[in-house]
Amino acid sequence: MTTPQTFAALGVPQAIADVLASQGKTEAFPIQADTLPDTLQGRDVLGRGKTGSGKTLAFAIPMVARLAGQLPGNRKPGRPRGLILAPTRELATQIAVAIEPLAAAYSLKVTTIFGGVSQVRQVSALKGGVDIVVACPGRLEDLMKQRHLTLDGVQITVLDEADHMADLGFLPVVTRILAATPDKGQRMLFSATLDNGVDKLVKRFLHNQITHSVDEATSHVEAMTHSVFEVDGVDAKKKLVHQLASGTGRRILFMRTKHQARKLAKQLTDAGIPSVDLHGNLSQAARDRNLAAFSSGQARVLVATDVAARGVHVDDVQLVVHVDPPAEHKAYLHRSGRTARAGSAGDVVTVVLPEQRKDTAVLLRKADIKVTPIRVTADSPAVANLVGEQARYVQPAPKAEPAPARAGTPRNSNNARRGGPARSGGQPRSGGQPRSGGQPRSGGGGHSRRAAGPATSQRSR
Predict the structure, then answer these.
(1) Measured in Å, how far apart are the chain's first and last C-alpha atoms?
(2) What is the DSSP string of 209-223?
(3) Element (H, E) at 113
(4) To 10 degrees, the CA torsion angle through 51, 192, 176, 207?
(5) Cα(323)–Cα(68) distance, integer angstroms
(6) 67 vs 133, 180, 434, CA distance in Å?
(7) What is the pLDDT of residue 43?
(8) What angle do CA 29, 315, 243 make, to 5 degrees?
(9) Residue 114 near residue 134 (C-beta atoms within 8 A)
(10) Please, what are the averages of pLDDT over each run of 10 residues along the chain (461 residues)?
């Protein structure tokens, strides 16, 4: 077993090591220990590691260290010196949160650029001058076309979750963006796999790169336990899911569709289990509010589609439930990777209807997960052992009486636009009480194995 290495021993500048130490991080994870000696020297790096392996700090540290030290330069409007591309808004936001304290140690400015929100703030930040841009490809290219920024001053470029970029169809725009950065700049590409065209990006844009593969794409965390619970039908599944949601710790429930995610979050909140949803139909402001409620502990359950399968990191997620088994094995691994992160333990449960047994068995085999399915009901001992202590019932807030409609004013005005809660599972107020907007309908019960730890919504390593 390899002896853990401190950041200072790896050559990380003292100012950055001090910031990390203040966050309780003194020893590097394997992917960080492997890549930092090369990235801090300006080498191009291809990093391959599973979700939750610590990739964010692996590229955040050398970007800040080199821009502040080896690559000094003046901040110029619309001309960033560092660029990080991410496939989703949530991941871009959490990367920015992770890198900002490091950048602040050297007075470097960081901003995020992504769609789903007004571009006014983003354009204003660019005009004021930023050192590092963390961006999603679509909005970034839009702003480039509008000439709000140019990438000819970028000295370090990072492509995070490159395989997910490919899955989402972003490779053409990513290729155009990378082509707009100086060919002599440092480039770091992090990906779990090199399929779907990622290998072409590597060949075209990385030069004499060092490859570090910490984990295979299908490898899973030893501290993660997997269970497959088979149920007899839809009603039994509903009762089981409510029971799995009823413990005291945080859990994420994954659904196939946006509608079902929103519906289940409502049902759980109405049953006394404060829950929020996360999916593509929510505005960015609503996504941020719901994720913040989950991170702070105001909501104990996040009901999500695969939009949360990558990039969303919340500390101490104790249980991931595949309420609907995913379509393919990579999605299973990324969904499951929301728990047992950064050295913590966690449990993963897949709920399977009779007609899903064959497909689920194939999926798990491809994911290299060896587990024996068991038939259960909501009252089975195996379920009780997994759920552990049940959380207290939280009384849902009463539904607000609809205001009388004014003449010419639509009755169903957009709640989120007035600053109200997201259209989700009843966004909880502080103290755990759900807000009145968007109230749920049906029932459920119970929740987790361990007491919830301190909430931190930011991805760390």
Answers:
(1) 20
(2) PEEEE-S-TT---TT
(3) strand 110-113
(4) 120
(5) 46
(6) 13, 19, 44
(7) 96
(8) 130
(9) no
(10) 79 95 90 93 87 82 94 88 93 92 96 94 96 96 97 96 86 96 95 82 93 60 80 96 93 94 95 93 87 91 84 79 91 81 74 96 91 94 90 80 55 42 44 40 38 39 41
B/e letters for 58-79, b = 16+ CB within 10 Å, e = fewer, are: bbbbbbbbbbbeebeeeeeebb
Phi, psi (5° rounding) for residue 427? -55, 120
**The tokens 């703030």 sit on which residue?**
121
- DSSP for 283-306, please give it: -HHHHHHHHHHHHHTS-SEEEE-G
Do the Cβ atoms of 301 and 265 come closer than 8 Å?
yes
At 395 the three-state DSSP class reads: coil
Decide: helix, strand or coil at residue 175: helix
Both tokens of residue 8?
């200072």
Q: How are beta strands 224-230 and 374-375 bridged, if at all? A: parallel
Long-range contacts of 68-73 (CB under 8 A, 24+ apart): 68/13, 68/105, 68/106, 68/108, 69/13, 70/42, 71/155, 71/156, 73/153, 73/155
- For tokens 């006394």, what's the residue? 272
Give the alpha-carbon dihedral of 67, 71, 72, 76, to 10 degrees.
-70
Tokens (6 digits) for 272: 């006394």
d(CA 145, CA 133): 16
Q: Are 357 and 364 in contact (CB under 8 A)?
A: no
What is the side-by-side strand order in the sheet with 110-113?
110-113, 132-135, 82-85, 156-159, 186-191, 45-48, 210-213
